[in-house]
Amino acid sequence: QVKFVESGGGSVQPGGSLTLSCAPSGFNLVNYAIAWFRQSPGKERVGVGCLDLSDGGKKHYSDSAKGRFTISRDGAKNVIYLQMNSLNSEDTGVYYCAAALSPFRPEALMVHEYEYWGQGTQVTVSS
After folding, report:
1. Are 9 and 81 in contact (CB under 8 A)?
2. What percent of the chain is modeled with pLDDT above 90?
3. Given a cut of 90, is residue 113 above it in pLDDT?
4. Torsion-angle region of 67 (φ positive above 0: left; ψ -120 to 50: alpha; else: beta)
């Protein structure tokens, strides 16, 4: 049974940092890309970044995430992290961890390529 355990969301002031965690189980991660998506109120779900384990662990980030967010993995614990720095109000939303089997265009972070999804964790950036 595929399962994701997400954690680490919360409230933070602008300029602050948060680290989200995603612990997937029930499938072999080696053939998958694990990505983080954000859904802000009234907006579509958008990709933030991914770790493509099906392509040697390559990382891809959205333009808004580049230079501020970092995806990493603890292989021993089977946990994927999203370290978020310099947060601003536009980063507010529900963050989802998702998995795609050998995505065709991992750099594009396309929602429809991801078949498994976590329950999401709320991130609020506000003063």
Report:
1. no
2. 88
3. yes
4. left
